[in-house]
Every structure is written in C-alpha cells, then in structure tokens.
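Notes, p. 3: input format for complexes.
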Amino acid sequence: MKCSIQGCPGEYEARSVMHTVRREGQVIVIDHVPADVCTVCGDTLLQPDTVRKIATLLQQKRQPASRVPLYEFA
Ligand SMILES: [Zn+2]
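Output follows (74 residues plus zinc ion):
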C-alpha cells in the first residue's frame, strides 16, 4: 500500500515495532507490535484490531515483562 503522507513515494511494509503509550503520566512500552511502516518516511499505521488489543492489554494492568530505563534528552 502506498504511503498516506503527502508527497512521500514510499510504500507500507509489514513490520514489528515498539509502541510507546503515555498514560496517566506513565510511559508504557509495548514491544513486537505488528504495524505497517513506510519504507521511506517511517510513518506507522496500526490496524484497528491491533489498537483494540493494545487497549485490552493496558486495561489488564498485567505485570510488565521488564522495566525500561527512561532518560530525558536535555
Ligand atoms: Zn512515507
């Protein structure tokens, strides 16, 4: 599928990405999320089904698989 960003000649390609959500001041990272990523600009599309699964996962408040160090750029 062609990229939806105006003027970008890229195509979306099925990949596994790391998805970051900021929720109630907390950063939550979900790894190995299936997504369509543009090969040129990196625009990422999640299928509605994937978005739904992420919402369910966040509601479950399961114990995280690991803790990620978070650094401020500045
Ligand atoms: Zn693109």
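The chain is about 20% helix and 35% strand.
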